[in-house]
């Protein structure tokens, strides 16, 4: 799936168990059916054994639908389940070291907030960048805002796909038009909705119409 990294970026779902109204698998399946193109499993407080178990279940589901599963932060879990890739932040393991550990065939995503960080991540072997927080978000307490102009500058500076993250939903999506991004990453805009399928479907349509 590595060759299709850009194709996987338009609607990138990051999981968060706090919003679940049914099982994680059921919720993610509905989101994929609605149009999600990539899934990142984020588990900040889950026991390692259950993290691995969840990752295996989601990997099977994602592959049934021919989309990649990315593991947030935990390189060991990614390697254990042989997920499609891993996403790391600036305060996690160095991207260059992660690339050495996972090899050339797995997807590496890196969170960045400046052009300098973006260029370094690209040089260190990142396949795509997550830039944010673009808008105010209640999903990540420590998220600092990134200006839309900075997002544009990052898109112009690098040759790899860029996705915007942080507080993105249908009400502010249009503000990202013309930035050069390859997609958006969302959490509550899908996970917290009563109708997950419909939320994903509507977002996918708007991303296609307004952004790509």
UniProtKB/TrEMBL annotation:
Binds 1 Mg(2+) ion per subunit. Its EC number is 2.5.1.3. InterPro entries: Aldolase_TIM, ThiamineP_synth_sf, ThiamineP_synth_TenI, TMP_synthase. One of its GO terms (biological process) is thiamine diphosphate biosynthetic process. Its cofactor is Mg(2+). This is Thiamine-phosphate synthase. GO terms for cellular component: cytoplasm. Mg(2+) binds at residues 73, 92. Belongs to the thiamine-phosphate synthase family. 2-[(2R,5Z)-2-carboxy-4-methylthiazol-5(2H)-ylidene]ethyl phosphate binds at residues 137-139, 167, 187-188. It catalyses: 2-(2-carboxy-4-methylthiazol-5-yl)ethyl phosphate + 4-amino-2-methyl-5-(diphosphooxymethyl)pyrimidine + 2 H(+) = thiamine phosphate + CO2 + diphosphate; 2-[(2R,5Z)-2-carboxy-4-methylthiazol-5(2H)-ylidene]ethyl phosphate + 4-amino-2-methyl-5-(diphosphooxymethyl)pyrimidine + 2 H(+) = thiamine phosphate + CO2 + diphosphate; 4-methyl-5-(2-phosphooxyethyl)-thiazole + 4-amino-2-methyl-5-(diphosphooxymethyl)pyrimidine + H(+) = thiamine phosphate + diphosphate. NCBIfam families: thiE. Condenses 4-methyl-5-(beta-hydroxyethyl)thiazole monophosphate (THZ-P) and 2-methyl-4-amino-5-hydroxymethyl pyrimidine pyrophosphate (HMP-PP) to form thiamine monophosphate (TMP). One of its GO terms (molecular function) is magnesium ion binding. Pathway: Cofactor biosynthesis; thiamine diphosphate biosynthesis; thiamine phosphate from 4-amino-2-methyl-5-diphosphomethylpyrimidine and 4-methyl-5-(2-phosphoethyl)-thiazole: step 1/1. Keywords: Magnesium, Metal-binding, Thiamine biosynthesis, Transferase. It comes from Massilimicrobiota timonensis. The gene is thiE. It is an enzyme of class 2 (transferase). 4-amino-2-methyl-5-(diphosphooxymethyl)pyrimidine binds at residues 40-44, 72, 111, 140. Residues 11-190 form the Thiamine phosphate synthase/TenI domain.
């Amino acid at each position: 799936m590595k060759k299709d990294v850009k194709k996987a970026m338009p609607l990138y779902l990051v999981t968060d168990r706090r919003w679940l109204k049914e099982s994680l698998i059921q919720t993610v399946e509905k989101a994929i059916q609605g149009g999600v193109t990539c899934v990142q499993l984020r588990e900040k407080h889950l026991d390692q054994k259950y993290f691995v178990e969840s990752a295996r279940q989601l990997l099977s589901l994602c592959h049934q639908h021919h989309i990649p599963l990315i593991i947030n932060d935990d390189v060991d879990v990614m390697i254990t389940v042989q997920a499609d890739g891993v996403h790391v932040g600036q305060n996690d393991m160095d991207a260059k070291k992660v690339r050495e550990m996972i090899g050339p065939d797995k997807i590496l995503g890196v969170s960045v907030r400046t052009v300098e960080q973006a260029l370094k991540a690209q040089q260190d072997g990142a396949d795509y960048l997550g830039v944010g927080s673009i808008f105010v978000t209640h999903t990540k307490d420590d998220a600092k805002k990134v200006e839309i102009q900075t997002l544009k500058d990052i898109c112009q500076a690098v040759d790899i796909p860029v996705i915007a993250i942080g507080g993105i939903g249908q009400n502010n999506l249009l503000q990202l038009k013309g930035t050069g991004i390859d997609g958006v990453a969302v959490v509550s805009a899908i996970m917290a909705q009563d109708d997950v399928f419909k939320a994903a479907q509507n977002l996918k349509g708007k991303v296609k119409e307004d952004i790509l």
